[in-house]
From TrEMBL:
Binding partners and assembly: Heterotetramer of 2 PyrK and 2 PyrD type B subunits.
A GO molecular-function descriptor: flavin adenine dinucleotide binding
Official protein name in the record: Dihydroorotate dehydrogenase B (NAD(+)), electron transfer subunit
Gene Ontology BP annotations: 'de novo' UMP biosynthetic process
Presence of the UniProt keyword Nucleus in the record: no
Pathway of action: Pyrimidine metabolism; UMP biosynthesis via de novo pathway; orotate from (S)-dihydroorotate (NAD(+) route): step 1/1
Cofactor(s) listed: FAD; [2Fe-2S] cluster
List of residues binding [2Fe-2S] cluster: C236, C241, C244, C256
Role this protein plays: Responsible for channeling the electrons from the oxidation of dihydroorotate from the FMN redox center in the PyrD type B subunit to the ultimate electron acceptor NAD(+).
Length: 268
């Protein structure tokens, strides 16, 4: 973990209310693993007082041919004062950043295993850390299930495809792909596989709490191992304030320090 002033390389609207920011932070980039996050001070004043956590979406800029771990990328949606301020920050300005923070995903169990299928389940902004993960996992079989309310809110389909994933979409209104929740699509994918006994599945998921709870239940039913990344409100981001504790089978854990990634069966 390091704290530094990092220059904004790019900060523009990505899609709808979603923004894409690229930051020159090689000291953070080279240490980052999928599932970790950064805590950013968004203004030079005391408003807002607290830093804001953002999942590391990617390191480097693969789409532009830069595979060196020099930059970090984040995706964000304007939902309040903090993200509104961030959307107004310009190329060449500096951000005060702490990172990388958190534990990240353990993807060694699926890495390059020929008999294992990796299933990435993303709900809304949950795509952010999973794109980074999909680019790291070299498994032969990778499936990305992207959930959104409408077609206009489907994020990162191209990025998942470019990383070698078979991409399936679920929208609440049926405007793209499967009509229904992404967890219903997950159930369908697992049911098809259980009939053929083709591959051992492993799930990685990130998204809203109700979605993650459903993923955990489905994983238990089909006896599939799953890791989930929790989207919790945080204050300090380093485990000191206990403002982001979650209940687990072994007691309360700090989402920022012990997480944000947990084994699905451990969360109560």
């Amino acid at each position: 973990m390091v704290q530094l002033k990092a220059k904004i390389i790019y900060n523009k609207k990505f899609k709808g209310d979603y923004w894409h920011c690229i930051i020159d932070a090689p000291l953070i980039a080279k240490k980052s693993i999928p599932g970790q996050f950064v805590n950013i001070k968004l203004s030079d004043t005391l408003e807002p007082f607290l830093r804001r956590p953002f999942s590391i979406h990617r390191i480097g800029s693969p789409a532009k041919g830069n595979f060196l771990p020099k930059t970090i990328e984040i995706l964000y949606k304007i939902i309040g004062q903090g993200t509104e301020i961030l959307s107004g920050r310009k190329k060449g300005e500096y951000l005060d950043i702490i990172g990388p923070l958190g534990n990240g995903f353990d993807y060694t169990r699926t890495h390059e295993h020929t008999n294992t299928r990796t299933i990435l389940v993303a709900g809304g902004m949950g795509v952010a850390p999973l794109v980074f993960l999909s680019e790291k996992i070299k498994a032969k079989a990778k499936v990305a299930l992207i959930g959104a309310r409408t077609k206009a809110q489907v994020l990162c389909e191209k990025e998942f495809k470019n990383s070698g994933c078979d991409v399936k979409i679920a929208t609440d209104d049926g405007s793209a792909g499967f009509k229904g929740k992404v967890t219903e699509l997950l159930r369908q994918v697992l049911l098809t596989n259980s009939r053929t006994h083709e591959l051992t599945n492993y799930i990685y998921a990130c998204g809203p709490k109700p979605m993650l709870k459903a993923v955990a239940g489905i994983a238990k039913k089909y006896r599939v191992s799953a890791q989930i990344s929790l989207e919790e409100h945080m204050a300090c981001g380093i485990g000191a304030c206990l403002g982001c504790v979650v209940k687990t089978k072994t007691g309360y854990k700090r989402a920022c320090k012990d997480g944000p990634v947990f084994e699905a069966q451990d969360i109560i």
